[in-house]
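Quick one, tokens below:
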């Protein structure tokens, strides 16, 4: 079984606390991972407006104990409290992650702005945001990024058109079943450059823990009132349920969040990693995977993309489409 770790760092606290904890643990186990870090201001406080725009958002925040995960400073960041800059505040920390052998790449500039609006941006607006992101990345690492992960799995024609000139090794902006070239023509017989984008997309294939704990409750399986999770998923059986989601016939890409698995659920994360290692999982490093796949680009499928839903996630995300 093959498993690649993609770690999204959305907030100032995520870099300062959770990401460092995850990096130290994974380094001690010699397990590769890709850290995708939001590099601009932490405007997390504006996420509260999703209560009025995304059905189920408030319930999800309650089920996953969001306040204990993010803390008051993050919940109010950019609204009642100043938005702290992320990339420029942690230059040495991010460079240290790279020195430890991890991939460190952008997760957008303004995480909230991208998450809530980017799927509908045109190319010019997306390019503006990517240029701001790249400037901070260059200030930290002295080079251009080779990969990118869209906040909230929000991508579209505008964002992917704007990324094409960047000549990225890959991006990881969607949810799906396996690596593909996105096609804006949505034709199965397209090859890269003929109705499709040339940049490889490596989607997240597994559900995230915040989603699993917010899966719609099944009355016969739901736990006692006030417990997290539905459909039988609780903090106590989260590791076991996650292992059952892994597939043996494909490359599993699991997105974890520094604020979640690196904080309140860190002990659960360690348990899962140790269980997976004991069961012989083959750890994949996303840049190496991309280079391997691109040796034979003709074998990489070309698929369309849509805005779809995922159980336990409020709103929509960009999804690989087979139609």
């Amino acid at each position: 079984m093959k498993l690649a770790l993609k770690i999204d760092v959305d907030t100032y606290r995520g870099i300062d606390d959770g990401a460092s904890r995850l990096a130290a643990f994974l380094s001690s186990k010699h397990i590769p991972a890709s850290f995708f870090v939001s590099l601009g201001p932490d405007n997390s406080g504006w996420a509260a407006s999703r209560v009025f725009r995304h059905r189920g958002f408030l319930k999800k925040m309650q089920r996953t104990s969001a306040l204990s995960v993010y803390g008051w400073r993050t919940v109010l960041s950019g609204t009642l409290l100043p938005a702290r800059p992320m990339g420029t505040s942690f230059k040495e920390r991010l460079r240290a992650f790279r020195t430890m052998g991890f991939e460190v790449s952008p997760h957008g500039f303004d995480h909230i702005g991208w998450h809530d609006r980017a799927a509908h941006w045109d190319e010019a607006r997306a390019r503006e945001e990517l240029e701001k992101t790249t400037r901070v990345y260059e200030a930290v690492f002295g080079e251009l990024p080779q990969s990118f992960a869209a906040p909230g799995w929000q991508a579209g024609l505008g964002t992917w058109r704007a990324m094409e000139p960047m000549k990225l090794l890959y991006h990881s902006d969607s949810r799906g079943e396996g690596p593909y070239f996105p096609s804006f023509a949505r034709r199965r017989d397209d090859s890269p450059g003929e109705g499709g984008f040339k940049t490889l997309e490596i989607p997240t294939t597994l559900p995230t823990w915040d989603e699993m704990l917010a899966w719609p409750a099944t009355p016969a399986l739901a736990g006692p009132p006030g417990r997290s999770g539905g459909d039988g998923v609780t903090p106590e059986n989260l590791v076991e349920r996650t292992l059952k989601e892994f597939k043996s016939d494909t490359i599993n890409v699991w997105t974890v969040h520094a604020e979640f698995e690196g904080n309140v659920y860190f002990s659960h994360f360690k348990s899962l990693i140790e269980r997976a290692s004991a069961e012989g999982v083959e750890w994949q490093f996303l840049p190496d995977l991309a280079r391997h796949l691109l040796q034979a680009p003709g074998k990489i499928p070309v698929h369309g993309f849509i805005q779809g839903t995922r159980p336990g996630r409020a709103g929509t995300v960009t999804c690989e489409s087979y139609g």
